[in-house]
């Protein structure tokens, strides 16, 4: 029998049909190199397209590098572009290959065609090979003086690329002064904008080590330079206008008259079609009028119309970006936007992320005059087939109810949601009803009458079930079937996967028992038995707590578990006012869209020297032993990338049981097996061993009363250099290289903690002791500082990480130094200076 015929697929034009395809390309390119026959350029184009296509899909075509370079000798601009693209892709990772491109790129930088000159210069600067920087200086110098604006524009950005490759080469060639001269005299607006961008970045990076660079950076914010840019504003492209406006927002006018002059000059930018230009202009207006309350309010009124216009026009992505900024402004001045609430009604064709943000806007602008219309609109969204949208709408109604005084109509609407018999609607409404009852206990009778008709079997979501259980326990005297519903839930204890629900169930049964003991006795015994045997540490501990309270004194247990409650006046805000102000300072950036400061989402290399990486509210403070120094060999793993990062996890050395210093007594589940009729034998649990009461010193220490007095001995004889400085980047590198010399815990005077309300107080105090602050950040109760000091005689450096807990007045010190012999002396000197903070 003949073998079956093999099916052949025609190879895709973008896929090589075999291993020899790249070799064939190499051969064909070599044959065309140097050829001037008619039609050669067209053939080269087809081959170049194949090479670029293979490169794009990840096939290695670096073997044809030499042939591509040889074929680049042409005046065809399309071939040049494809060749530059290929060269730029492979030169970064193959420095040896990059060397082959230098000659032809330098030759093209002198081509008659300005487009080729510019493209060649851009490719030459984009090679990214540090060993070839000397070949960039000449072409860049010629490019900055080129007669064509496109070449000068490329050269201005090329200087910045050279600086990042080799800062010393860039500065030695005197490129920054050339850029400054070009910025102030060039006729082409785009060249001016590129020069400004490059100079801003170069001088900002150099300012920490060079006083001249710091002065030059300040000149960019001088009145003549700022007015020069403002007068040429209409010449700039939209992108360049944003750069200039960002610069203007940092300018500090001399008086109010100058502020009005600038605002009048930029008035027409508010009507610009580009949203980025409008937002950049608004940032200038807002920042310049912060100290002028009346004018600042008028600015809000003025910018309202342009922002609302941008929201209604453009793509959903643009609408979301503008809405995010509008939301920030609404949170700062809701009364100004309260009459425009209809602009925030959701459209059926908008994506969910836009709708969600509009719901936040509606809750923010709601007041006594528009609450009815807003809640009516939100109630329409509750019936939406889009379940996430319905959930968010219910939460929005709840937020409005929690911030209003007259909530009669809103409570009636929420209770109507419970009658809709939709699982997701019922779940969200139960959570909100619980919060409403905490703030408005007078509505308990109406709410409980409706909630009592809801079967616990129909509520499956943990938060909703926990809310229902809370109401069953809190209002057990008003709900006739409460003990029996709770008993049924206790019987299904093992089937409940949520620890939150089990915790609420324990508390609810306990409250119900204290009010209706005969009906709840069996349920309480079963709940305590199941809770003590629970695998979750929190549930286990709470069950033991309730058992011991009951065993000690039932009246004491009632005062602790079910005390008289006061209505909650204000619920905690998810964002502190300090955080909101920081986001406002970063107006017209991703910080507003993400609703968090930039240091929380940027990489270390882009954070800048004075920023932290993670949320400062979660700073970790290690509980390392304080009775001695840690050996230098004990370098923690997170020190490798620590410097300004605060993302390390909290460690609780020496603590077990989920971070608790207390070990619960062991419990034998068999002790409950013989409990008659399911009752819990409260005495069958082994009596825990008597715990020694803490010493009075420990109690005083907890209350902040046992603070050790400031050292009476004179500070150590170690002398520090009062003029010591260090580049933040050098500090970061040194911090990663050095091991930990000392790791200690000390205390700070409570008056010093009070003085930390001024963030500059501690750095200024330590600077008076020749210890300079390199970076700082944080929010109560955790604050983090990095200090640097240098020995007066010699170059020995001391690097300190200082983490202060303002609630406990405790300080964690981590010291690194290249002079281990003096580390203890420096530690004593540092602690001596720190102990005087607040008392001097």
TrEMBL record:
One of its GO terms (biological process) is protein transport. Residues 1-41 are annotated as: Disordered. The keyword Protein transport applies. One of its GO terms (cellular component) is endomembrane system. SUPFAM superfamilies: ARM repeat, Subdomain of clathrin and coatomer appendage domain. Keywords: Membrane, Protein transport, Transport. InterPro entries: AP_beta, AP_complex_bsu_1_2_4, ARM-like, ARM-type_fold, B-adaptin_app_sub_C, Clathrin/coatomer_adapt-like_N, Coatomer/calthrin_app_sub_C, TBP_dom_sf. Signal peptide: none annotated. It is found in: Endomembrane system. It holds the Pfam family B2-adapt-app_C. Subunit of clathrin-associated adaptor protein complex that plays a role in protein sorting in the late-Golgi/trans-Golgi network (TGN) and/or endosomes. The AP complexes mediate both the recruitment of clathrin to membranes and the recognition of sorting signals within the cytosolic tails of transmembrane cargo molecules. Belongs to the adaptor complexes large subunit family. Adaptor protein complexes are heterotetramers composed of two large adaptins (beta-type subunit and alpha-type or delta-type or epsilon-type or gamma-type subunit), a medium adaptin (mu-type subunit) and a small adaptin (sigma-type subunit). This is Beta-adaptin-like protein. It comes from Salvia divinorum.
């Amino acid at each position: 029998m003949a073998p079956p015929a093999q099916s052949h697929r025609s190879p895709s034009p973008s896929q090589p049909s075999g291993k020899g395809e790249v070799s064939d390309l190499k051969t064909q390119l070599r044959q065309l190199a140097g050829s001037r026959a008619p039609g050669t350029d067209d053939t080269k184009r087809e081959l170049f397209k194949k090479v670029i296509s293979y490169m794009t899909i990840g096939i290695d075509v670096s073997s044809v590098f030499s042939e591509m370079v040889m074929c680049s000798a042409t005046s065809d601009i399309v071939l040049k572009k494809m060749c530059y693209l290929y060269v730029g892709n492979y030169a970064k990772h193959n420095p040896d290959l990059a060397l082959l491109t230098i000659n032809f790129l330098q030759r093209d930088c002198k081509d008659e065609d300005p487009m080729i000159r510019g493209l060649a210069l851009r490719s030459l600067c984009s090679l990214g090979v540090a060993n070839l920087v000397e070949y960039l200086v000449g072409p860049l110098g010629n490019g900055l003086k080129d007669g064509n604006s496109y070449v000068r524009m490329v050269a201005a950005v090329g200087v910045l690329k050279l600086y990042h490759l080799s800062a010393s080469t860039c500065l030695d060639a005197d490129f920054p002064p050339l850029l400054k001269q070009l910025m102030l005299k060039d006729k082409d607006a785009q060249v001016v904008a590129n020069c400004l961008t490059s100079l801003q970045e170069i001088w900002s990076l150099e300012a920490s080590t060079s006083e001249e660079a710091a002065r030059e950076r300040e000149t960019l914010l001088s009145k003549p330079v700022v007015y020069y840019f403002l007068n040429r504003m209409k010449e700039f492209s939209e992108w360049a206008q944003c750069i200039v406006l960002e610069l203007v927002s940092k300018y500090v006018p001399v008086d109010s008259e100058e502020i009005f002059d600038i605002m009048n000059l930029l008035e027409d930018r508010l009507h610009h079609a580009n949203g980025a230009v409008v937002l950049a202009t608004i940032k200038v207006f807002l920042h310049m009028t912060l100290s002028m309350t009346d004018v600042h309010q008028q600015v809000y009124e003025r910018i309202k119309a342009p922002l609302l216009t941008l929201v209604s026009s453009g793509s959903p992505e643009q609408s979301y970006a503008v809405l995010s900024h509008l939301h920030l402004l609404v949170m700062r001045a809701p009364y100004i936007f309260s009459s425009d609430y209809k602009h925030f009604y959701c459209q059926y064709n908008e994506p969910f992320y836009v709708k969600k943000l509009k719901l936040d806007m509606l809750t923010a602008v709601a007041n006594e005059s528009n609450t009815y219309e807003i809640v009516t609109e939100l109630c329409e969204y509750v019936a939406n087939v889009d379940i996430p949208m319905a959930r968010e709408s219910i939460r929005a109604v709840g937020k409005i109810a929690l911030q209003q005084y007259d909530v009669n109509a809103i409570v009636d609407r929420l209770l109507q949601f419970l009658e809709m018999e939709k699982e997701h609607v019922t779940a969200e409404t139960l959570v909100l009803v619980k919060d409403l009852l905490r703030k408005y206990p007078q509505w308990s009778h109406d709410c409980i009458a409706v909630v009592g008709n809801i079967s616990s079997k129909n509520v499956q979501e943990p938060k909703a079930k926990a809310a229902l259980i809370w109401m069953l326990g809190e209002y057990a005297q008003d709900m006739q079937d409460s003990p029996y519903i709770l008993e049924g839930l206790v019987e299904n204890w093992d089937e409940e996967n949520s620890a939150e629900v089990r915790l609420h169930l324990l508390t609810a049964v306990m409250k119900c028992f204290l009010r209706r003991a005969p009906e709840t006795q069996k349920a309480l015994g079963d709940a305590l038995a199941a809770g003590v045997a629970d695998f979750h540490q929190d549930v286990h501990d709470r069950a033991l707590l309730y058992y011991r309270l009951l065993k000690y004194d039932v009246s004491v247990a009632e005062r602790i578990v079910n005390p008289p409650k006061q209505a909650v006046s204000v619920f905690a805000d998810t964002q502190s006012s300090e955080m909101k102000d920081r986001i406002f300072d970063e107006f017209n950036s991703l910080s507003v869209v993400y609703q968090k400061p930039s240091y929380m989402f940027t990489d270390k290399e882009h954070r800048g020297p004075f920023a932290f990486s993670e949320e400062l509210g979660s700073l970790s403070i290690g509980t390392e032993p304080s009775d001695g120094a840690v050996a230098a060999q004990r370098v923690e793993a997170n020190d490798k990338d620590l410097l300004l990062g605060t993302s390390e996890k909290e460690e609780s050395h020496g603590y077990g049981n989920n971070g608790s210093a207390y070990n619960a007594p062991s419990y034998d589940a068999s002790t409950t097996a013989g409990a008659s009729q399911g009752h819990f034998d409260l005495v069958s649990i082994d009596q825990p061993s008597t715990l020694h009461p803490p010493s009075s010193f420990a109690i005083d220490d907890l209350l902040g009363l046992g603070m050790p007095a400031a050292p009476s001995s004179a500070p150590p004889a170690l002398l520090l250099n009062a003029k010591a400085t260090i580049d933040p980047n050098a500090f970061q590198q040194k911090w990663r290289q050095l091991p930990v010399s000392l790791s200690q815990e000390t205390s700070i005077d409570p008056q010093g903690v009070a003085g930390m309300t001024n963030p500059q107080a501690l750095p200024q105090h330590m600077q008076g002791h020749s210890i300079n602050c390199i970076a700082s950040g944080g929010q109560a109760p955790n604050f983090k500082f990095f200090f640097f000091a240098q020995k007066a005689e010699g170059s020995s450096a001391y690097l300190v990480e200082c983490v202060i807990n303002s609630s406990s007045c405790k300080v964690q010190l981590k010291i690194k130094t290249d002079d281990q012999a003096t580390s203890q002396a420096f530690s004593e000197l540092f602690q001596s200076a720190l102990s005087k903070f607040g008392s001097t």
